[in-house]
Amino acid sequence: MKRILSSFFTICTALLFGSVHAQQIGSWQVYPSYWNATQNLVVGTVVYSLCDGNLLAYDTEDTSVKTYNRLNDLNDVHISHMAYSEEAKRIILIYDNGNIDLMDENDNVLNLSSLKDKVMPNKTINDIYIYGSMAYLCMGFGIIEINMSEGTIQETYQLNTDVIGAGIIDGNMNIVTPDGAYKCSLEDNMHDMKNWSKFNEVTKFDKVVCFQNQLIGLRTWNKAIVAIKQNGSFPTLDSQDKYSFLYVSGNQLLYGNSQVVRVCENIEKPTSINIENSWNCISHANGTYWVSDGVNGLKGFKISENSFVQTDGPIQPNSPKEDLCYRMQWVGDRLLVAGGINTVAAIYNNPTAMYYENGKWTNFQETDDEAYSDFRLANTTHLVQDPNDENHHFASLHRNGLCEYRNGKFVKLYNCDNSPIRSILPDNAKYFNYCSTSGLQYDGDRNLWMLNSETDTIVRVRTSSGKWIGLYYGEIANVSLCDDYLIHSSGLMFLNSRRTDNHGFFCFDTNGTLENTRDDRHILRSSITNQDGTSYSPDEFYCMAEDLYGMIWCGTNLGVFVVADPPTFFDSDFHFEQIKIARNDGSGLADYLLNGVAISCIAVDGANRKWIGTHSNGLYLISADGTEMIQHFTTEDSPILSNTIYCIAVHPTSGTVMIGTDAGLCSYVSDATEAAEELISDNVLVYPNPVRPDYTGPIAIKGLTMDSEVKILSTTGQLVWMGTSAGGTCTWNGTNKQGRRVASGVYHVVANNAEGKKAIVSRIIVIR
Length: 768
What we know:
Blueprint: H1 2-17, E1 28-30, E2 37-43, E3 46-51, E4 54-59, E5 65-67, E6 79-85, E7 90-95, E8 100-104, E9 109-112, H2 114-117, E10 125-131, E11 134-139, E12 142-147, E13 152-158, E14 165-169, E15 172-177, E16 180-185, E17 197-200, E18 205-211, E19 214-219, E20 225-228, E21 236-238, E22 245-249, E23 252-256, E24 260-264, E25 271-274, E26 281-285, E27 288-292, E28 298-304, E29 307-315, E30 327-331, E31 334-338, E32 353-357, E33 360-363, E34 380-385, E35 392-397, E36 401-406, E37 409-414, E38 438-442, E39 448-451, E40 459-462, E41 468-471, E42 482-487, E43 493-497, E44 504-509, E45 521-525, E46 528-529, E47 535-536, E48 541-546, E49 552-556, E50 559-563, E51 580-582, E52 590-592, E53 599-604, E54 610-614, E55 619-622, E56 629-633, E57 645-650, E58 656-661, E59 664-669, E60 685-687, E61 699-702, E62 709-713, E63 719-724, E64 729-732, E65 745-752, E66 759-766
């Protein structure tokens, strides 16, 4: 029977569907950056590399690369430290939040979450010291002892001091703190600070290691390599240069800086090798020196004639250049990602711009021309693509103006020296580092709109011919942060003035005359009154999104509000709508949708449902009218990377929801897509097809019109199941009306549009 069904399916596939590839509805994917190598360690023939907190493994024998993430092996995101115990045959991985994974050489992972879950004032981890099967975590308050063989946190020593480094010497635990070096016998009660004796007054070390039965430190104030002796002395071992790194790997002590590396098997006889480098970490095994070379990736070197000669790498799997995703948008099947941040000027991220297409990441070239050596280029706030040229892009920078790219290569920087873009601090010696831009968006005439915050003329346009136009509106002149435009389908322009002075939602109508503002209408609404007369004064106005019916959904720090009829925004009696959700508890009462929740971003899918991102409450999926909460994703109950959501972009035809968080980018395949204008048999796709015995997920029927009625019929015409499409997609869980899984066989799909005027037929093959 199975052979017959499989053969029949092959024929049907060729005739009806062609080649169809799609991810399963409800599936997740993550997109970590494996670009910037910061730490590595060697286990046998495998080199493990940390790249901005993400883990990969490079097999030196077959040159294969395996990447790890929260979906396939690990239990959290952003690893801060790792170390290996030869005796336990396990790697310890410690995350930024204190979560701990123990991973063996077969990638079996044991999670220890008690440190993450514990409420304590200081969870800072300075280093890890491995002794046999024990891992000693050098903490801001003392030491945590982990038995890596047994997979348990064995002891927590609250010493009320910041432990920089540790080492076991002659049966004593030795620690270095800002107050000096102490030791305590392993046989004594290490919980009691009275049992710790100070043996050295030396303080202020950047790094401390244990090598050949003695403590060695990289001193903070002069960057020298110093021995920390048990007799109270601390002789300088090497002060020829100011050193920046210090490691022990195998039987060697390795230290150096950007100009020289010293290799020691005997601390008194270091081998000095001059090499210009940007190394973050160096390990040694099997005659090869493995180097974490920052944005240049993981590399392998051998020493030949007193020189490092590269033999391996760089090891850099295709991935985003950084885990930064502040703003995103789909342009066809290409996802544009701007990786900066536009809220905290003190955070300077690289000017990351990139796109994802056909499973591959393209990272734009950073501006490194000597002409911009004095510029502090950082924080790409928006990235847009020329509607007439897929290889032409513009990116706005939080403090540097507008970057132009062709074929992913930097072309030009527009700022206050060569364009009407203005500097916030024109009299500053480095005025060019204060040109705040954001909100890039093309209109239907290929005019590029942007926002130039903290200047008198916020609204600026670069026309398709390259001409610049500034639109002055007194209500928002010199406001501190305008974030985004919304070009409404009616032709009205909306923007959000996010915070502090003259904040609110601003609407203007150019009346079709860009260069004449005298006939413009414009209004700023800094407070919100809803349909019930309830008033709000938000501190932050974050986002706006137009739904399929032209309504504008607005996000603030006090919740979500709706502009039901945008042209009435100018009216004196205008009010916002707040969606009410009935409690259904017999009281007849209702609550406002997400009232009091800080809403960071909103996106609309093909079924007109709203995907709502928050600052700390994760991601919500709300019904088209907002009255039903369909799903709520948080780190506690889903694979989403963080509860802090920066941006959302929904692909209209695949239903893929890209989710930008402060911990990186992930995606979720939803059950809604953009509806077709009419039902056409050749455009209706069913997958998976056939439905095989091990498949338990939903079966998707795509290519439908809005609110299509879908019936699943047996070969004899009996009704098995009936449902309605969400946008252009309907999902069937493979069960009958009684909720039982259907038997093997061929099932017919009959779909009617919302008016019931047209039906199409397809087939699904089920194999049990």
